Amino acid sequence: MTAGIVWESSTICRTLWWGMVFAAEYDTIRIFRRIVRHKTLIVPVIEDILYWLYIAVKVFSICFYVNDGVIRAFIIAGFIMGAGLYIKALSRYYIKYGVKLIRFLIKVIQIIIIKPLKFLLSVVRMVTGKLLYPVVWSGRRIKGRYIKACNGL
Fold first, then answer.
1. pLDDT in tens, 93-114
2. DSSP notation for 62-127
């Protein structure tokens, strides 16, 4: 095989790979959207714009690295075919199990970290509340007398 054919086959393999990576990165954004619901339409639009700007810069840098910045049709076709291959083969499973994994990790973090901290905070509030009760009670009593005195004026 000539060097040109080896270069083109290596380039098409790279673009297929990067097309799959780009599609997986977008699926990561989709997983994030399923876990964190957005209340307004502007947030997903901004996410999409930032994603496509990132992809444009990345595609240009890959084209610059591989072909001195010349964008050829088979390079773009490789990106599209790689993304299509990923979407048909893996996207559904990546999103399904990615969402389940993230939700499981959130529950584990809540059980291991957040619930003990809430309990500790409630104990601290209870202890400080009982210690400060005479101060609060006397403050309310003074405030009540002040209000009655002001109303009597």
1. 999 999 999 999 988 988 888 8
2. HHHHHHTT---HHHHHHHHHHHHHHIIIIIHHHHHHHHHHHHHHHHHHIIIIIHHHHHHHHHHHHH
